[in-house]
Amino acid sequence: MTTVDALAIFAHRDDAELCCGGTLAKLVRLGHRVGIVDLTQGEMGSRGSAATRAAEATTAAAVLGVQVRENLALPDAAITNTPETRAALANVIRRLAPRIVITHAPAGRHPDHRVTAQLVRDACFVGGLAKVAPELPPHRPLKILHAIAYREDQEKPTFVVDISDDFDTKLRAIQCYGSQFDGATQAGEVYPTGEPLYDVIRHQSAHYGSLIRRQYGEPFFTFETMLVDNPLTLDVFSM
Fold first, then answer.
1. Who's near 110: CB < 8 A, 6+ residues apart?
2. Which tens digit of pLDDT belongs to each residue from 165-196?
């Protein structure tokens, strides 16, 4: 059975690349097994088609180097958090047994993004219930990380991942979605500034990198307080 160390679960093909592509590429580069689950096929997208986005997602996954990419085929623009969708996603989580799960920010302008954030949290809980789908061993990830890039209404990040060495890989993966992004100035949670979308992504990554005194970064939020074992190992200058 194929398992992964980290699993990104997002509503649409391209969301994982936009929100945490640098982190996924970094984990792969560091030797970890990484997977992506897209909940919908993107059939309601204003640009391109579901078939085109499927091919683009396959290419992007190869760029990132992830070992697994699956699609749950939930209805685009109509994701719901129900016992049925929780059970379907919980089965994937049990089968892939990730240590960490990464998903959308709790807030978002796309309804699918907001629903997915809570659906993922609930499915992770259900995945640990032994009597749900007993044919699969129960599994509950250690951490759920919310990728909050582009969300300035979110609380301050719990932490920022340094993606300076992996930003170019992130951008190349995003550029695989030419049907969605070529010539665009906004996408998903990326608000328009009048600049090309790819420039906005670079500037946003540089902004979060500056918070940790690095070139590029990706921000994450956790509801629980993070543990620091030894304060002397803390990084980032205060002054």
1. 11, 188, 189
2. 999 999 999 999 999 999 999 998 999 999 99
* Nearest of 106, 57, 132, 77 to residue 223 by alpha carbon: 106
At 141, phi and psi to the nearest 5?
Answer: -60, 155
Neighbouring CB atoms inside 10 A of 84's CB total 10
pLDDT at 134: 86
DSSP strand pairing (217-221 vs 159-162): antiparallel
Which CATH homologous superfamily contains domain 6-223?
LmbE-like (3.40.50.10320)
Check: CB of residue 38 under 8 Å from CB of residue 10: yes
- Distance from C-alpha of 26 to C-alpha of 29, rounded to nearest angstrom: 5
* Tokens found for residue 78: 């109509």
Domain ranges of the chain: 6-223
